[in-house]
């Protein structure tokens, strides 16, 4: 089996892995990124970037390329209850120039990060190969093996980074337990319809007949729709056939009922998403650190996952450079990342849980409380605090420019 040696072996070329690889390479470290997908035609989830992610991508130097490739600025988030706007969150009130949500296909984000990574001579991108095992020296992780059979390759590294998403194989290979949090008690049916002349310029949650619906513009010419259902409720509804399902969705979002009737013609037009939250019990062990969805996973409420993945990369960057410069890859050093980050992640999980309950819960009590609570929130300083937390996170995260040499 052939082998190579590097400073950092990043497993997973998603938003977390590529952002981190770029930072490490620009700090002078040798980096290898191993990505399972052969091309950019991957299954992506999540198209909304919060202002905090936009600011960090700007600091990374990739935002201009992203903007050149497309995307829509969305100005507000609205909760619309039976035609009445209960909550109206105005992103334009945030500080410029990051005073909007950016809706863009995640492919554009990945392509722009990939392009920036390709320009670094000390960064080696291996696409189309999966990591299937880790290399240990006693209890210490010292590398990873990707590919299989005659094509298997060993990559030895000062430190391995698991950035391989919610179902992280590296996490499993390292024997790190993962706890699901049942914060989101809904399933989501995910689909797109043509926008035609009906772009909304915002993210909206509609509460009308039946289950709530999330809707936003999807670049370049679609509307992304997410129909939330009680957990495990889809099979019962789907058994009654496409006519019934289509009718239920149309009732749930009356302004788009005709487009749904026209464009949803088969159950295969709908994707049922496995939506869950959770965290790994530890985010580091000797020679290994977990970031992004591999360390902590989030449901779609409040569009937090991409923000957090990029913030993780920026936060772990100085920790990893210190570890490299002192040649110390011990868990005590690498866990500094978890110490800094876990409290913020716990706050995001708690906030998402409250948002989910406030917007999606059903029943006469919830229906009576919702307008009062929404009004109260809109007129108190809490509104500003919550908006800032959703947009930027619990505490400021910034790129450590002083570590960059390229
Ligand atoms: C329905 C839904 C909607 C969402 N909407 C939003 C949203 O609007 N905004 C938002 O911010 N977040 C959203 N999210 C969350 C967001 O998609 C994730 O949090 C984010 O993609 C995490 O980035 P990551 O880099 O950690 O992991 P991922 O994006 O999952 O990337 C992991 C990468 O690792 C690769 N990989 C996996 N296993 C291996 C292996 N063994 N070897 C090599 N490579 C491997 C994968 O191919 C992938 O490219 C949503 C999530 C869901 C479920």
Automatic annotation (TrEMBL):
Pfam families: FAD_binding_3. InterPro entries: FAD-bd, FAD/NAD-bd_sf, PheA/TfdB_FAD_monoxygenase. Residues 6-348 form the FAD-binding domain. Keywords: Oxidoreductase. SUPFAM superfamilies: FAD/NAD(P)-binding domain. This is FAD-binding protein. It comes from Planosporangium thailandense.
């Amino acid at each position: 089996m052939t082998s190579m040696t590097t400073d950092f072996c990043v497993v997973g070329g998603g938003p977390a892995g590529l952002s981190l690889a770029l930072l490490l390479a620009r700090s002078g470290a040798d980096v290898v990124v191993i990505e399972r997908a052969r091309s950019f035609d991957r299954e992506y989830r999540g198209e909304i970037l919060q202002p905090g992610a936009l600011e960090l991508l700007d600091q990374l130097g990739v935002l201009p390329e992203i903007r050149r490739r497309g995307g829509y600025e969305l100005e507000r988030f609205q909760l619309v209850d039976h035609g009445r706007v209960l909550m109206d969150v105005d992103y334009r009130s945030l500080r410029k120039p990051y005073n909007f949500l950016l809706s863009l296909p995640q492919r554009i984000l990945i392509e722009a990060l990939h392009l920036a990574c390709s320009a670094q001579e000390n960064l080696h991108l291996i696409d189309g190969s999966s990591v299937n095992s880790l290399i240990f020296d006693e209890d210490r992780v010292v590398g990873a093996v990707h590919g299989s059979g005659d094509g298997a390759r060993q990559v030895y590294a000062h430190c391995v980074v698991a950035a391989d998403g919610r179902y992280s194989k590296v996490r499993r290979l390292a024997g790190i337990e993962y706890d699901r949090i049942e914060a989101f008690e809904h399933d989501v049916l995910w689909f797109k319809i043509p926008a035609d002349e009906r772009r909304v310029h915002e993210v909206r949650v509609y509460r009308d007949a039946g289950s709530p619906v999330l809707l936003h513009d999807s670049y370049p010419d679609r509307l992304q729709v997410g129909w939330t259902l009680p957990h495990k409720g889809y099979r019962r509804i789907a058994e009654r056939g496409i006519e019934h399902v289509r009718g239920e969705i149309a009732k749930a979002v009356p302004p788009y009922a005709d487009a749904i009737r026209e464009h949803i013609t088969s159950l295969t037009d709908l994707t049922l998403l496995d939506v869950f939250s959770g965290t790994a019990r530890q985010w580091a062990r000797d020679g290994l650190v977990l970031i992004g969805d591999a360390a902590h996973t989030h449901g779609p409420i409040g569009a937090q996952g991409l923000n957090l993945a990029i913030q993780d990369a920026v936060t772990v960057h100085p920790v990893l450079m210190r570890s490299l410069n002192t040649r110390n890859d011990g868990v005590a050093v690498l866990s500094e990342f978890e110490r800094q980050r876990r409290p913020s992640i716990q706050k995001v999980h708690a906030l998402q849980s409250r948002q989910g309950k406030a917007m999606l819960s059903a029943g006469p009590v919830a229906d009576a409380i919702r307008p009062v609570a929404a009004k109260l929130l809109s007129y108190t300083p809490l509104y500003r605090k919550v908006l800032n937390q959703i947009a930027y996170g619990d505490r400021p995260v910034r790129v450590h420019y002083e570590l960059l040499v390229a």
